[in-house]
Every structure is written in structure tokens, then in C-alpha cells.
């Protein structure tokens, strides 16, 4: 059974989940005296309901409970887009490494060992809620300005939140992975995240990631990597279609001539361009001849250089 009655309208909300009444009472009193609004739940099912309804700023979660244990509660919360952003601090008397690992694998942010010391709990809560508030502010600003951004957990590549534009681009560039966008990054991005972690540890340049489609590229740009819990990744799309249309307008080309010229600026051979456009290298060369005439040049290199100088300003 959960107690969802709040005592302060504007106070930070903490949800405590523990099946031992004495533990709940001690933590409730300590947090209440420190100015928090405290909610309690004494089992896993009640904790899930409380988290969804109240959207607490942080959750203190007992690891070992009858029925649904804390690890399963954490996994369910992190699988739900409405609750996965909530920091979870495990409370456990188990200090064996496998239990600590299990807590982090389930999606926990931190852990504290029993017997609980109120001063330690307050310090951990303050640190994690401050990080959570900053992330929330960043998300709000990015949403307001229509930016494409994703916050992830670097240890496992799970998505914490994403702006609407980021979700749209991810669905377009990774159609085979659409069913998983609420929970984790596609394998290509997860592998890149691992490379970024290694580069940061070695203090070397962070490798870029570009996902290429026939008509565009999606670039992943690390924006905020200082937080060990959440990283913010910006997404930037370079649209081939927009640049192809610009070449059509600038040089009075047909669509196919503009496509051939555009891919020539990317260093593609006639065979490469034919593969991209679904035509033969011979046809590609015919289009290039028409392009040379309209641009007033004699070679592919000259045509590509002239086109590049024009489209560089519209990327």
C-alpha cells in the first residue's frame, strides 16, 4: 500500500520503497525534516503506481523485498519512457559485488548500504537531484528551440529522453530499429558510444559518427559528456535533397543531372553514382556531358569544384 498524500506543494518529491515499516519511518522523518515531500510504498507493485502517478524527483528503493524485488522494479521503471529519467538509489544490506553490479545493470543510479545513515542519504539525494534538475532544464530548452537531442546512459546506451525532432530522425534513419526507440540506441550508435568512452578515457579525439542514407546523413555530436549518469548527444542532419534542389536552381539542371553532379562533388565514380541512382555508368557519363555544357567547364573535377563552392553555403 502506498501513501501518495503530499505535504508541500513545491518541495522536491522523494519516493521511498521498503517492506520494513521501521525503515520507512526513519527515512520519512529524516527527509520530511529536511524539507522534502515524502511518498512511501511497501511493495514493488505500489512503487510502480506511485512513480507513474507522482513523478518523484528521486526514488530510494530497497533491493530485497518479497514478491517483486527492487531490481525488477528498477527494470520496469527504466523500461517506461514516463519514469526512466527518475534517478534510483538502491538501499541494500548486501555488499557482495554481484548485488552491486545487479543494481547498476537494472538501471540504478547509486546505492547505499544498510543500516541507513540519514546524513549520507541526504547528501546522495542532493547530488543526484541537482543533476536531474539540470538535465530537465536542458531538455526543456532543447525542446523549445526545436533541437534534435538525445540523453543516454553511457554505461549501456539506453535512452533517457529524446526531443521530438530527434525521435523523428532516428525513426527515419533506423527503420529496422523503430520498435526499440523507447529503450535503447541502435547497435551502430551503441558501438560508437563505447568508442567515445574509450576516447575520453585515453584523452584522445572523439570519433565522429555519421549514418548515411541515399538522400541524407545523420551526424551524432557529443554535447555534454561530463555527467557519468547521462550524456547529451546532438543530432544534425545534412540533407542531400536540399542541396540537389539547390544545384538544379543555380545551374538550371534537370533533377537527374543535378543528382549526378551532386554525387560527383562527393568524389563518387560513375559506377558509384550509377549504383546510387539505379542506372548505368554510361548513362551517368551522358548526364555529366550535359552538366559540363551548362556549367561551362570541361572536366568532372572542374564541375565538382564549381558545384561544391555553391552548395557549401547552404549546408
Could you please describe the fold and organization of this structure?
The chain is an alpha/beta fold and 315 residues long. It has three domains: 135 residues, 3-Layer(aba) Sandwich (Rossmann fold); 94 residues, PAS domain (Beta-Lactamase), CATH 3.30.450.20; 63 residues, Orthogonal Bundle (Arc Repressor Mutant, subunit A), CATH 1.10.10.10. Helix content is 49%, strand content 19%. The chain has twelve helices and eleven strands. The strands form two sheets. Strands 1-3-2-4-5-6 form a six-stranded mixed beta sheet, with helices on both faces. The termini are far apart. 31% of the residues are buried. The N terminus is likely disordered.
Write the layout of secondary structure elements.
Layout lengths: L1 E2 L9 E5 L3 H13 L3 E5 L2 H11 L3 E5 L7 H10 L8 E5 L4 H9 L4 E4 L4 H27 L4 E5 L4 E5 L1 H10 L13 H16 L6 E5 L2 E9 L6 E9 H12 L3 H11 L4 H8 L3 H15 L4 H12 L4
Parallel strand pairs: 2-3, 2-4, 4-5, 5-6
Antiparallel strand pairs: 1-3, 7-8, 7-11, 9-10, 10-11
Helix pairs in contact: 2-3, 8-9, 9-11, 9-12, 10-11
